[in-house]
Amino acid sequence: MVWTWRFEKADGTETEPAVQPEDFTTQGDAESWIGEVWKDLLEGGADRVTLFEDGSEIYAMSLHADAG
To answer: How does 25-58 read in b/e, with b if 16+ C-beta sit within 10 Å?
Structure first.
C-alpha cells in the first residue's frame, strides 16, 4: 500500500507543495509528516490536502488552523 498527499489551493486547483513529500507505507507515517510540515505547506500556497491510499481518496482537510 502507498499513501500519498495531493495539495490544493482554496479554489480546489492542484498546486505544487512547498515541501516535497515521499510516498508513505502507512497512514500514520503520512499523517505524521503532514503534522510536521503543514505550516510550510500553507505558507507555500497550499490551502487543503487530500490523503490517498493506492489512488483512492481517504479524506481531505484544510491546512488553516481556524477551519471548522
So the answer is: eeeeebeebbeebbeebbeeebbbbebbeeeeee
What stretch of H or E contains 30? helix 27-43
Instruction: State the Cα–Cα distance between residues 36 and 15, nearest whole angstrom.
Output: 19
pTM, two decimal places: 0.90
pLDDT digits (tens, 9 = 90+) for 20-68: 998 899 999 999 999 999 999 999 999 999 999 999 999 999 999 875 4
Q: Which residues face 62 on adjacent strands?
A: 48
The answer to whether 15 and 59 have CB atoms below 8 angstroms apart is no
User: Phi-psi category of 37—alpha, beta or left, where left has phi over 0 and alpha has psi -120 to 50?
Assistant: alpha
Question: Do the Cβ atoms of 36 and 13 come closer than 8 Å?
Answer: no
